[in-house]
Automatic annotation (TrEMBL):
This is DUF937 domain-containing protein. It comes from Galactobacter valiniphilus.
């Protein structure tokens, strides 16, 4: 399983759909676009040493409990999620929302969804990185660190059916794989283009 699949499997789609005011199918489709965008935005920002330090500090403020045993969206702090998405996407946030909305569900749905899922993503990453995040982030100036850790989560399981989540994100990280994947994954890649990495560092 990739990190994205792990996060999606922890969500209660019926509860998510109810809070979004849509169908479980639409909620699932929107989440499948939003979760990679959030992790991808973090990974792009973490390529900058100051961004990596900022993400490490944010991870220290988020416990893994939100995702352990499945997510109860009633426990999600949406105001915190709004701050997280603002930090991830910066001035590109509106453009990211509009582009993801064009893939399905509309910008209004994506705009509501990102702040719901951002704390969930941070909780998942906190559970994966734990106390090692600080040490890993210190290596970011050498081109590794937390950026590589996030990239590894996105690339996990790339040998399975659809080519893994890196095919879905493709050229978002300058990997040179633009245009090599099709379907919904390629759509996410093509839609977001170079918008990721615009967050505050």
């Amino acid at each position: 399983m990739t990190a994205v699949q792990d996060i999606l499997s922890a969500l209660n789609l019926d509860q998510l759909a109810e809070q979004l005011g849509t169908s479980p199918e639409e909620a699932k489709q929107a989440a499948e676009a939003a979760v990679p965008a959030l992790i991808g935005g973090l990974q792009a920002n973490a390529a900058d040493p100051a961004g990596a330090a900022s993400i490490t500090e944010a991870l220290s403020q988020h416990a893994s409990g939100l995702i352990d045993g499945g997510v109860d969206l009633n426990q999600v702090d949406v105001a915190d999620g709004e701050r997280i998405t603002s930090h991830i996407f910066g001035s590109n946030q509106e453009a990211v929302v509009n582009q993801l909305g064009g893939l399905g569900g509309g910008a209004g749905l994506i705009g509501k969804l990102l702040p719901m899922l951002a704390p969930v993503v941070m909780s998942f990453l906190a559970s994966k990185f734990g106390g090692g995040a600080q040490a890993q982030a210190q290596d970011s100036s050498q081109g590794g660190g937390i950026s590589d850790m996030l990239g590894g989560l996105l690339g996990g399981g790339s040998g399975s059916g659809g080519g893994g989540i890196m095919d879905a994100i493709g050229g978002l990280f300058g990997s040179g794989s633009q245009g090599q994947s099709g379907g919904a994954g390629g759509g996410i890649m093509d839609a977001l283009g170079g918008l990721l990495g615009g967050g505050r560092r």
